[in-house]
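Lab notebook: predicted structure, single chain.

Context: the supervisor wants predicted structures on file for every construct in the current expression panel, including those that have not yet been purified. This is the next one on the list. No modifications to the sequence; it matches the entry in the shared construct table.
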Amino acid sequence: MKYKIIQLSDNGNSNTEIARKLGLPRTTVVTILKDKARILEEVKSHAPMQAAYIRQRSGLIAETEKILKVWIDDQTRRRVPVSLAVIQATAKNVFEQLKERHGGGSHEETFQASKGWFYRFKSRFQLHNIKCEHGEAPSAEEEPVGDFPRKLAAMVKEGGYCARTVFNVDQTGLFWKKMPSRTYISKQENSTPGFKAAMDRLTVLLAANAAGDFRLKPLLVHHAETPRALQGYARSSLPAIWKSNPKALVTSTVFEEWFSVHFVPAVKEYCQANSLAFKVMLILDNAPSHSVSIEDFDPNIKVVFLPPNTTSLLQPMEQGVMSLFKAYYLRQTFAQAISAADKEDAPTLKEFWKSYNILDAVKNIATSWKEIKQSKLNGVWWNLCPEFVTDLHGLTDTVEDVTENVVRMAGQLQLEVTAEDVTQLLASHSQELSDEDLLQLEQQRLEEEEKTRTHDSPPRAALSTKVLSEAFKHFEAGMALLEENDPNFERSSTANEIIRSGYACYREIYREKKKAAVQTSLEMLFRVPAVASNTLPKNSPAESRPDNDSDEPGPSSLFLHLLLSSDRFQQRSPLVGNGGTWTPPKPGSPARGDTGHLRAHASPSPAPSPARRRALVTAAKGPVRLELRSRPR
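Prediction complete. Output recorded below exactly as produced.
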């Protein structure tokens, strides 16, 4: 009975409800629950030594723990140290919010967030790597950098590395659909109940070498495996690597897969293309996803970890690359909105923003990453490896300059945005989620999964000859329109050449598809069942032509003319039969019967023998030209 009371309490029932269900005085229930710890200990002590005691958790405390786990993951992603006191305070705060939301009997449920609870919580969610500081975490300024750059320089020299073979990796959060807070779009979204699209976040991982001449494809991690905007697209064709997990974080599993499947092959190919020995150094910070075991994954890659609490001072990508990337992303998004507004049937800004989806974000992320100059990627190594830096001009590219551009572009969109608004938005990508945000994020993830299960996937995108032909017509029409109306002939001609060169790859795809279609038609036309022998009748191919119309069984016959020029045949091409052969004519012979023109009877019935039809096709070395002619009765 006591254990049942404890179970009902854990399931979220109030003391009064438990007393009513079991027919007990309320004071008895309260007394038993006060002695809960001792009762559970007795239950466990009477169990067999090897038995596992599993208690199903539910109610407000269980829900609190789920949300707290999301919060801890968010802190971990941003490398924010947490103390036991902070975790306890956050847990209590979340519990109280849930309590107010549920109301009713939940008001009688209590939660102390004790140390004992924390260690059980840590065990339940397998938070083995979490480190709780019992005080304030030291900042990079308080933690001396020391002589690590000198030690690293010695490792580089000893290992024979250079700027092209030393790499750095970093990651950042990105609210991919977030406007400055004072814009009317942001205000309208905040006033709408439910999940805010502005709180949907990606984790972006970027990697490049110290020379800045090689950057890897961005890695994106989202909570949805296949958002609707990406359905129908091959993952390999996206301009970024797409991964997913419920937390939208670069976990150790995701990072190790990226390292083995993407980083190692890409760097190896880069080294081979540039005649460099495949001997690489990868410098990492101490993010939880960067497991020490990564050092043993490949003997040709030396992994070096930065000292703790020095990321903001030493990590190259943190010296302006990540902040500039996020500024470029915002600018690219505004540029896309301006481009949409310039169209003839332009949507309103609100309509554009509503249609802006995760696929647009992926494209803009890739564009923004490419926009960062090589000199910038090289110059940010000044604090860690100054000997690698050959161009300091990249350091002049600042977020402030991009911010000014964004403010001007916002004016073109009739948005009141100041430099402070842009700075606040860029800083928000690194801010922690509020308790309310965490609740809504979990709800949105569940709704997205439900939509994926209940909705049919859109058809997979494909380039057909019809689509390509239609696109070519539009290209040609557009170029012709420019050429007719531009008084500067040289300018329009140059533009036309650039455009034609730009879509030459699609022309090649079109030719390949047409060629494949012709080949398929040939195979269908000459498809024959398997035969035991490849022999031909004694008569020659020319004799297969009927002498007059009376030999034809139907009202009309089709004569297949295989126009085979003699240079596409062997000097003497035997058509295997009962000793019969066919010899190509001499060059320049005008006689029709001597030019290699063969007409094979192709009427519905009777048809030429299968072996003969096969021989007519395979006798030629090169392609053949076919003509189908209808002959009336």
